[in-house]
């Protein structure tokens, strides 16, 4: 069974540009989560999608947005990039939504975004 | 406001000894707790979880203990192996919130 896959592995952008990150969940998983891990920091919750709908978002500005497609894959968009957006962006999927237990998150290996 | 805390940024242990990683939480609505391990350049890997109806869960070398009254959980690794060297994240779920992660503890197992 394939795990969570993310693309691209690395992305280099300049300040003010837009970045698009992609994620394919484990087959059968309907929930997709996005987390940001800045250098030396923990995982900060960005967005949660389930069944194509945005269910919750973390404390990030509106220039962080995304969507979930009918096949449950997801896209994270970051507009007007700033230097502090440089981080590892992790996507995770789970079988059921956050209100369900015994359904841990399974992570991809992330996209390393560098903003210069 | 950090709802899940891991107060030790790093921990060093000799190979073969016990590693104990600690985690504290503040939200009494959390009722599902997980531990993840993360190697550099990889995503976190799920290790073990525990629900609030239990106080202990064991899986091979890994045991998680939950003390609800103290809002504290710990991960015990016995015996520790060099391959266990990684960053360990504690996470919590409940109260209508998404998975909340702690800042992580870097474990170094010395040969």
Characterization of this structure:
The complex is a heterodimer of chains A (116) and B (111). Chain A has 116 residues and is mainly beta. Chain A has no helices and 11 strands. The model of chain A has no long low-confidence stretch (mean pLDDT 91). Chain B contains no helices and 11 strands. In chain B, strands 2, 4, 5, 9, 10 and 11 form a 6-stranded mixed beta sheet that branches. A 5-stranded antiparallel beta sheet of chain B has the order 1-3-8-7-6, with no helix packed on it. In chain B, a hairpin with a 4-residue loop joins β7 and β8.
Q: In terms of topology, how is this protein built?
A:
The complex is a heterodimer of chains A (116) and B (111).
Chain A: E1 5-7, E2 10-13, E3 19-24, E4 31-37, E5 44-50, E6 53-57, E7 64-68, E8 74-78, E9 87-94, E10 106-107, E11 111-115
Parallel strand pairs in A: 2-11
Antiparallel strand pairs in A: 1-3, 3-8, 4-5, 4-9, 5-6, 7-8, 9-10, 9-11
Chain B: E1 4-5, E2 10-14, E3 19-25, E4 30-38, E5 45-51, E6 56-59, E7 62-67, E8 72-77, E9 86-94, E10 97-101, E11 105-110
Shape category of chain A: globular
Shape of chain B: globular
Percent strand of chain A: over 45%
Question: What is the mean predicted local confidence, pLDDT of chain A?
Answer: 91
- Give the tally of β-strands of chain B: 11
Major sheet details of chain B = 6 strands, mixed
Our count of helices of chain A gives 0
Strand-residue proportion of chain B = over 45%
- Low-pLDDT segments, ≥5 res of chain A: none
Please trace the helix and strand order of chain A, writing H or E for each element: EEEEEEEEEEE
Are there runs of chain B of 5+ residues with pLDDT below 50, and where?
none
* Derived structural class of chain B: mainly beta
- How many strands appear in the DSSP assignment of chain A? 11
């Amino acid at each position: 069974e394939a795990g969570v896959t993310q693309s691209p592995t690395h992305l280099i952008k300049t300040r003010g540009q837009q970045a698009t990150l992609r994620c394919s969940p484990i087959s059968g998983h309907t929930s997709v989560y996005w987390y940001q891990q800045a250098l030396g920091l923990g995982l900060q919750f960005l967005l949660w999608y389930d069944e194509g709908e945005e269910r919750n978002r973390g404390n990030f500005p509106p220039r962080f947005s995304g969507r979930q497609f009918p096949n449950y894959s997801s896209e994270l968009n970051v507009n007007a990039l700033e230097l502090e957006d440089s981080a590892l962006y992790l996507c995770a999927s789970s079988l059921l939504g956050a209100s369900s237990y015994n359904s841990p998150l399974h992570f991809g290996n992330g996209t390393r975004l560098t903003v210069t | 406001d950090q709802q899940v805390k891991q107060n030790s940024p790093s921990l060093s242990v000799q190979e073969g000894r016990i590693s104990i990683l600690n985690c504290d939480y503040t939200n009494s609505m959390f009722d599902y707790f997980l531990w993840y391990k993360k190697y550099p350049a990889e995503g976190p890997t799920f290790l073990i979880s525990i629900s609030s109806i239990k106080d202990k869960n064991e899986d091979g070398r890994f045991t998680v203990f939950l003390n609800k009254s103290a809002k504290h959980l710990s991960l015990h690794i016995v015996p520790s192996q060099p391959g266990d060297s990684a960053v360990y994240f504690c996470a919590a779920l409940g109260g209508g919130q998404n998975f909340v992660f702690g800042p992580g503890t870097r474990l170094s197992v010395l040969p």
